[in-house]
């Protein structure tokens, strides 16, 4: 399993505008085909904030929790999934034309998924290639929807 999955897109909007969408975690359900809800716990989102999430994959709906591990306004947001240790992130890079390159990544910091998840990927989701292909497709769909929203 690769340690990093990544997708990116150029958006004709300033980083501050992109950040306004990406950092509003309750809006992720508008963009992600796999996230039904992401609810931050507490009044403000910052490094250390916990979230309670509801996700879907291949007809399954399941809860998860995460913790914000990086929160740099107008630049980067990352959260670690508590159940499996993966880190999902958005990085914003200004482009020469005043727009933003938005990068979404999934990192596996320990180099492999926990055994229970690897078993699930193999037996339920059709193996690594199919599972990871679905994740990358979801990332591209998410980024495309964010772009469409901001360029409207």
Termini separation: 37 Å
Q: What's the name of the CATH homologous superfamily? A: START domain
How many structurally independent domains?
1
State the CATH architecture: 2-Layer Sandwich
> How many H/I helical runs?
4
**What is the global morphology?**
globular
How confident is the prediction overall: mean pLDDT? 92
Q: How much helicity do the residues have?
A: 25-40%
* Radius of gyration computed on alpha carbons: 15 Å
Q: How is the CATH topology named?
A: Alpha-D-Glucose-1,6-Bisphosphate, Chain A, domain 4
Strand content: 35-45%
Main pleated sheet: 7 strands, antiparallel
The total count of strands amounts to 7
Low-confidence stretches: none
Spell out the helices and strands N to C.
Answer: EHHEEEEEEHH
Strand order of the largest sheet: 1-7-6-5-4-3-2
* Assembly state (oligomeric): single chain
* Secondary-structure-derived class: alpha+beta
User: CATH class, anyone?
Assistant: Alpha Beta
Protein name: SRPBCC family protein
InterPro entries: Polyketide_cyclase/dehydratase, START-like_dom_sf
Organism: Nocardia tengchongensis
Task: Give an account of the 3D structure.
The chain has 4 helices and 7 strands; from the N terminus they run βααββββββαα. It has helices at residues 15-22, 28-31, 115-123, 128-151; strands spanning 4-11, 35-41, 50-57, 60-72, 76-81, 87-94, 100-107. It has 152 residues and is of the alpha+beta class. 30% of the residues lie in helices and 38% in strands. The chain has a 7-stranded antiparallel beta sheet. The chain has a single domain, classed as START domain (Alpha-D-Glucose-1,6-Bisphosphate, Chain A, domain 4), CATH 3.30.530.20. It is globular. The model has no long low-confidence stretch (mean pLDDT 92). This is SRPBCC family protein. InterPro entries: Polyketide_cyclase/dehydratase, START-like_dom_sf. It comes from Nocardia tengchongensis. It holds the Pfam family Polyketide_cyc2.
């Amino acid at each position: 399993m690769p340690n990093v999955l990544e997708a990116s897109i150029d958006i004709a909007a300033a980083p501050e505008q992109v950040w306004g969408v990406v950092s509003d975690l309750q809006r992720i359900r508008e963009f992600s085909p796999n996230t039904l809800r992401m609810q931050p716990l507490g009044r403000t989102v910052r490094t250390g904030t916990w979230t309670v999430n509801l996700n879907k994959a291949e007809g399954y709906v399941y809860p998860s929790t995460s913790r914000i591990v990086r929160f740099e306004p107008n630049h980067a947001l990352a959260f670690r999934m508590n159940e499996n240790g993966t880190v999902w992130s958005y990085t914003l890079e200004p482009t020469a034309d005043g727009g933003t390159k938005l990068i979404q990544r999934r990192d596996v910091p320990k180099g492999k998924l926990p055994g229970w998840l690897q078993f699930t990927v193999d037996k339920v989701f059709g193996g690594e290639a199919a599972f990871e292909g679905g994740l990358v497709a979801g990332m591209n769909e998410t980024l495309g929807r964010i772009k469409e929203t901001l360029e409207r």
